Amino acid sequence: MKRIVTQLTLVAAMTCTAANADPYCADLISQDQLPKKYQKRGPFYSDVATGWIVGQDQFKNKYDVSAEAKILWRGITAEFDKRGVELVVLAAPPRPLFAPQTAIDAMDLPADVKMSDLDDGFSAYIAALNAAGITAPDLSTIANGASSADYYFARDTHWTPMGAAVSVAHLNAAMGRASVLDSMARIDGSATYEEKGSLAGVVKDVCGVRPDIETVPAPQYAEQGSATSLLGDVPKLEKIALVGTSFSDRYQSDAYQVAGALAFVMGASVDNFAVTGGGLVGSIEAFVRSGALANGDYKTVVWETPYSAPLTHVDGLRQVLGVLQTNDEQFPAGTLDTRIGKDWSSIDHSFPVTDVRRLEIETEHTNTGQLVVELIDAKGGKTRTKLVKTDRVSADLCHTKWAVALDDVPEGQIVRIKLRLPKAKSQEVATVRFFD
Fold first, then answer.
1. pTM reported for the whole predicted model
2. CATH for 330-435, among 3.40.1130.10, 2.60.120.380, 1.10.10.10, 3.40.640.10?
């Protein structure tokens, strides 16, 4: 009976006028009532009148930048600079900032949710990236402009195709190429896009009825590189690599046209290496491991990062820097073999941190999941890093090598290394390589 009543209430609410301020159903805001797969993201706050749905996880301020993160950023930038490549960041801003004020008011959010903290935290994070030499536009400023209404879907966690377009226009401006207005004036936004919405799917699973599909404006991009000179030569376009997540690989097809926006706005040829579900590390690690960065084809790498995985996670940054530092290295300073599994394996191996700057662990079989590395110094101090590999990366780009940079690890004598594969079903051989 409860489910029938809930469905009837939802159907009635969805036919109400914009004056109503009701959630889709009461179970959405009760974390215990949510299916287990949604509990970490919930509760979910919603407003039928505007159609907006926001999970509790999206209100978390994940943007505090540690001194350690800044050091790792500088190391990552230096690795790209050594290869003659500019690394720029396209960081999706916190989605709740784009919800209409009427929706925020109607959601009756908890008292500890402060939108100003979310806004200020993100802007400070972007300012820190730029201070570290990584160009990144503050896309949260779009929330205060005319483009905000079409920037995010109301019932999906991603930006819209027009949201992607205006984001790229801001990146282009931050890189000193053209103004946002000039870039957007060239974009034909007369097409439309339909999105069924992942958050609408949450409502269906919890409340019993799926909200309507959203139809939003979408750009149409003319093909680049079609013009020829009087001699019939096709101009050679700059090549850009796009690494990122589902924001650039939605439905494994870049449904929101991030690569298309980059190609059109920057007049470039764009190769899209984004991986849905790849998190902070998956796409960029696969890109570096593929050798694509080493062949000199790309002068710019655009690192798209979602609000759920900003570049503040130190373990992920250590892994990315470690991959950059070790991928082309052929001659380690030292090597040892061991066996590792789901329980800790301990290796008594002494080395000064000043001499060994990164480690590479090559497993026998494991190329996805987690590998935890713990370094113990002579005073008993511990530095633990969790390395992660996603199974969303295509099989031909999966690799059994795991790398970790030791930048900003307290200087001293490391006397023991502990390794663990939490999800391993059996022990396997691993080779540990030390690089100075």
1. 0.91
2. 2.60.120.380
Say if CB 17 and CB 48 are below 8 A apart. no
Mean pLDDT of 161-174: 98
**Segment 340-374, tens digit of pLDDT:** 999 999 999 999 999 999 999 999 999 999 999 99
| pLDDT (0 to 100) of residue 21 | 53
Q: Is the pLDDT of residue 227 over 50?
A: no
Chain-centre distance of CA 332, in angstroms? Answer: 31
Distance between CA atoms of residues 154 and 138, nearest Å:
21
Give all strands (DSSP E) within 154-248, no chain letters: 188-195, 214-220, 238-243
Written as one string, the DSSP assignment of 334-379 is EEEEEEE-SS-EEEEEEEETTT--EEEEEESS--SEEEEEEEEETT
Instruction: Categorize the per-residue pLDDT at 223 as very low, low, confident or very high, splitting at 50, 70 and 90.
Output: low
Burial label for 51, CB within 10 Å (0-12, 13-18, 19+), is buried
Q: Hey, where are the domains in the chain?
A: 68-192+214-325, 330-435
